[in-house]
Design goal:
Length: about 300
């Protein structure tokens, strides 16, 4: 009788490797599917609760002691004020700091210390920024519980994230493009303005918009500086008191009546819609700018 051919060690090793790869892909797919399914289930549950209150009247009405007639107009306007002011305060400073650290600053102990502090501040809990804003902006500078104080506090929160995202985007620009610009006789500033920044702009804008999407949902810093939970008017100036969507939702959730919980669910849906809109804008801008650059 002839002996049966035995599998070579290389063939057995390849079979084990393919099996391990399939198992790893299945684990990764499961790790992706479980959070998505949980998120979809939670969103569907909130949407079912919020559906009776979602409508134009809910968006254009003022808060009320009666849940049926309560709306989120002051909170919506307050959040818009905060986002515009935070963008004006944090984005220019953050991008300029990233440019300096990445293109101008020489390696030194001071530079390393600054970079370490920025990385540390990016992971600090948001309530600590609220305490800092309460002491500096509300008490020392005398801004009170105003829109300006809230926007300045959120700017401190966003600044480390904007700097880190902008630096990462600047690092993606090949060094050869800088050297080619220098070879043509351009100085550092024209090179940054006409070569480096346009190439890094998709990443910079994506990081900025994602940071703003996080800021729009922050509650702890605004509560700490004393933002109101019930506002029945629209802010007319930057020194007026204000409220925001997360604070209004927190106010409704803390009430015992079930009708206000329905309003809170509707507010959560509106807030999620705004965050998804900002994330969608970030993805659209990145794809559009990348297409313009590479084509």
């Amino acid at each position: 009788m002839r002996a049966k051919p035995t599998a070579s060690p290389d063939t057995e090793l390849e079979a084990v490797s393919r099996g391990a790869e399939r198992a790893f892909r299945a684990i990764c797919l499961l790790a992706l599917a479980l959070p998505l399914l949980l998120l979809i289930a939670l969103f569907a549950n909130v949407l079912v609760d919020a559906w009776p209150r979602l409508g134009w009247d809910f968006l254009t009405s003022f808060p009320s002691r009666h849940a049926v007639s309560a709306g989120i107009l002051p909170a919506l306007v307050g959040s818009a004020y905060l986002m515009v002011l935070t963008t004006v305060m944090a984005i220019p400073v953050g991008v300029a700091a990233a440019l300096y650290l990445e293109e101008y600053a020489r390696p030194s102990r001071l530079t390393s210390l600054i970079e370490l502090n920025i990385s540390t501040l990016a992971g600090v809990p948001s309530i600590l920024y609220g305490l800092l804003g309460l002491e500096v902006f509300v008490r020392v500078l005398g801004l009170g519980r105003s829109v300006l104080a809230g926007a300045a506090t959120l700017s401190l929160l966003l600044l480390p994230m904007v700097i880190m995202a902008s630096r990462e985007a600047l690092r993606t620009v090949p060094r050869s493009l800088r050297e080619a610009s220098f070879a043509l006789g351009a100085d550092l500033w024209p090179t940054l303005l006409r070569v480096v920044l346009p190439m890094a702009l998709p990443g910079v804008l994506t990081g900025i918009i994602l940071s703003l999407a996080r800021a729009i949902g922050e509650t702890a810093p605004l509560i700490t500086i004393g933002a109101l939970t019930y506002v029945a008017f629209l802010p007319e100036s930057l020194r007026d008191t204000f409220t925001a969507l997360p604070i209004q939702i927190f106010n409704w959730v803390s009430r015992p009546q079930a009708e206000f919980h329905v309003n809170a669910a509707a507010g959560i849906v509106v807030l999620l819609a705004l965050m998804l809109l900002l994330n969608g804008v970030a993805i659209w801008l990145r794809m559009r700018l990348q297409r313009r650059i590479y084509w």
